[in-house]
Amino acid sequence: MLQFKLVLLGDSSVGKSSIVHRFVKDSFDEFRESTIGAAFLSQTVKLEKHQDVTIKFEIWDTAGQERYKSLAPMYYRNANAALVVYDVTQPDSLVKAQSWVEELKHKVGDQDLVICLVGNKLDLCETDASARQVDVEDAQAYSKEQKLLFHEVSAKTGAGVGQIFQEIGEHVYERKTAESAASAAAQSRKTLNVELQRPSTNDSTSCCA
Amino acid sequence: MDDIISVGRSNGKNGVRMVYLSSKSPSVPNLNEAFYGDFRRRISPERPQSHLSPTPLAEEQTNASLIDLYGDDENGKDENEPDDAEQEDGRNSELPVSPTLSPSVTTPAQGSNEEAPKDFSQYDRYGFKKQNAHITQEQYHEWWDEYSRYCIRRKRKWQDLLAKSGLALSDNDIPDRFPPRSEKLKRYVRKGIPAEWRGQAWWQFARGQEKLNRNKGVYDKLLASLNDRNDKVFSRDLEVIERDLHRTFPENIHFQKQPNDNEEPLMIQSLRRVLLAFSDYNPKIGYCQSMNFLAGLLLLFLDEEKTFWMLVIITSRYLPGVHNINLEGVNIDQGVLMLCVKEYLPDFWQRIVTKEQSRNYEFLYKLPPITLCTASWFMSCFVGIVPIETTLRIWDCLFYEESHVLFKMSLSILKICDQEVAAARRVMRNRVTNKDDSDIEIFQAIQSVPKKLLDPQTIFERVIFKRRLSLNNLNQEEIDRCRRYVSSQRLKLKNYADIMGDKPITKDSTKRDISIGPDFVENALSSEVYGFRRSLTTAHWNNSIKEKVRQIRRK
């Protein structure tokens, strides 16, 4: 079984915890307590595309408030994937998401980290189309330009949530197998498992930022 | 007393409705009255025999049953309390059962024609849900049956203590004053303050009145000026506060909107005012997520103005810097906690860091991932981390003994986690081989173990005050010194990193990693590494010398 570390980032109250709970427990609470610091959850999935591959996601769900950003390097240290979440009814939250993408690219470097932009609260648009404040095309265009995966989901109905993790799983898996093939060719003695552990990066930000 | 601050003013900004109206105190539910409606239904003096009864209302156990219990349980003996003989029962009549329902109390049962009325048996005496993902209703009742009796016994002890100290109860059964600090009082506090007295006791122990006396009228002025604030920083705080109001104890009855009620719950209105006033009062902190839980819990026990000042005291005296914008106080306290784990739980320490990190004190600089979980224990002072009665017991000690209590609690919980992980491994026959699996195991234990600590006695009696753990040396003086040490070390490392420069990330980030490896840390810390160790051992040495001197003197 492969183990991938995944971190959730995004503005407060966009639904990060709700997405994780939908994925891990398949449940939804209309009123969920704000996350303080971080919460850790894990969930195992079988890849649809590669039937024999099972992935254990080690998920770090973080607090959304701006000031928690200073703790963020601790979360994304060694992460294989990041879900950057915004609320489709809150344009400001997309701006925040974009700044998270910037930060990840700057601090981690994008070559190893799979980033997925996720627009949440799709259900609000279904009941009232005018609730939508972020066009799907805009977010899609941005994702394409930044080479991000992109999904719109509803943690409330569950729509699209499973797909995010399937797609991320596939991407990380394919990336890792390609890498390990390359490193095997390079006569590396490292095993696949070792390779899956990303080395720590930019430590100077991890405590003093 | 009921100052109208500003009535129903609404503000178009962000579509946020700002209402700073009405008084400071009506939101405070009286614990004895909050479930009065329920109490009336079960006015029978008999203690409920079974909580698994199919009749929902007749046998429910809420705080009302606690009030009942105060009335009829006579034979309670506290095994652990050598002092003070049991007293006569004369005081049973003192127990207040208010004949009128306070208008300030939200009565959840009223006027709910459309939605099914709430089943109060599901809620505890503070309005929290008994059952959750980690605790079943049955488990709750099984524990509560025992613990409520314990609470009664303790309350009697407190009543005796007050009587002996010549302190009377006021009309509402709540003491105006508690006895001066003493070893005995400390022991009483550690065993739990009676729930109905908590607000008053916390207020006294935290010296809230002194703070308020020095700042008379400040809270009102803050509220009055809130409408004039519209700068960017404040509006940012305001936005986050608004989002968090309904995410603060959403399962608690006092924080819920009642069916057919268009008004926001009074509790939410109070919470908004306290948090907004605070963000104005202390711009260094503004609003930090987690303060909603601190203020929310305080509001269940104290009026709004007192809640405000308690929040000021917690964020400055007990948890300095923890809620500041840069959260450096969090990092410092987590560094201190890690030093404590290293010192007091060496086995667990080996599970969470590599030998290398441990040897060169790199962990002060690059905190172990476990601190991502433990940080919230400090930020919210365990609110939402452990079940409510356990939280309240921790708060009792926090206000009497200050913040080292939080470190002791954390160490106790980590010790239980360690035992659980070890036990699970024995069952699994050491199937866990790689570091990732073992990390996941620990993270999961750290999150689930505290949630199951339904019975406060689990950590209070068995772990925390046991000499075996030798946590007794960990006093406030030690923690304060430790905080200063970690703070200065982290500053040095930061300066060092600044001087070394922030090299741009290259593809080969491993190289960079090496450059901030052991040498880096050792260089930065140089002689100071051992300074702390010395100071720790000195502290122990000092304590034992002090104790010896005391013994000699006694002779």
From TrEMBL, chain A:
Entry annotated with the keyword Nucleotide-binding: yes
Statement: the UniProt record of this protein carries the keyword Nucleotide-binding: yes
Source species, domain of life: Eukaryota
Keywords per UniProt: Nucleotide-binding
SUPFAM superfamilies listed in its UniProt record: P-loop containing nucleoside triphosphate hydrolases
One Pfam family named in its UniProt record: Ras
GO function terms (MF aspect): GTP binding; GTPase activity
PANTHER family found in the cross-reference section: PTHR47978
The name this protein goes by in its record: LAME_0H03752g1_1
Native source organism of the sequence: Lachancea meyersii CBS 8951
Automatic annotation (TrEMBL), chain B:
Keywords carried by this UniProt record: Cytoplasm, GTPase activation
Cytoplasm keyword on record: yes
Entry's Gene Ontology molecular function annotations: GTPase activator activity; small GTPase binding
Keyword Hydrolase: no
Comp. bias intervals (Basic and acidic residues): 39-49
Region annotated Disordered, chain positions: 39-119
Gene Ontology cellular component annotations, sorted alphabetically: cellular bud neck; cellular bud tip; incipient cellular bud site; mating projection tip; polarisome
Pfam families assigned: RabGAP-TBC
Biased composition (Acidic residues): 70-87
Compartment list: Bud neck; Cytoplasm
Ranges for domain Rab-GAP TBC: 192-402
Main location: other
Entry's Gene Ontology BP terms: exocytosis; formin-nucleated actin cable assembly
UniProt biased composition (Polar residues): 99-113
InterPro entries for the chain: Rab-GAP-TBC_dom, Rab-GAP_TBC_sf, Rab_GAP_TBC_domain
Protein name, per record: LAME_0F19394g1_1
Organism: Lachancea meyersii CBS 8951
Lineage of the organism: Eukaryota, Fungi, Dikarya, Ascomycota, Saccharomycotina
